[in-house]
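Hi P.,

Sorry for the delay on this. The queue was packed all week, but I finally got your sequence through. Input first:
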Amino acid sequence: MAKPKTRPTRREPTYAAVAKPVAVEAPPPAPSAPAPPPAAVDVRGRNVSGRPWKQPPKSRSSSLKMTQPRKSWDAKKRDREARQRAREKEAELVEARKERIAEQKRKTEEKRSRKRRNEFRNAQYQVITNDKTVKSLSKKKLRQIKRTRVAADGEVELVDAYAPMHGPRAKRVRGGK
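Then the structure:
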């Protein structure tokens, strides 16, 4: 068997040191069973880094994959029903959460409307009857002025001076009906 070609490493110089032969007597063979035939030796060289190569794989990677045993029809049916119950439970929880959020929104809106009503009731205000007074005010003063408006639900509310006349999206009509 020919020796595989390898590149020399730093540890192995290119020159070879000559070793002197030493006479060693071999012990007599032991009277035992005949020796097994020599196994195939995997002769591998060394790479440039000097590290030993990887060990050859002992088994194929496909044999490492574990396969699940096949399920019976009843087991599949049970699993399917369990998944269905889990989905229904999840849907119930989501619905309950949506209802909780809607209830919170409703309560918050009621609280806001109560607060607006109470502010309007307790407000101290001065009525400006002369339009010329309002027209001559600066923008900064107009920001402080509020006017009353009747909302769609019949409540009287305080709004900014430039707010639309009726409803949240109504436009002011100038010189019209």
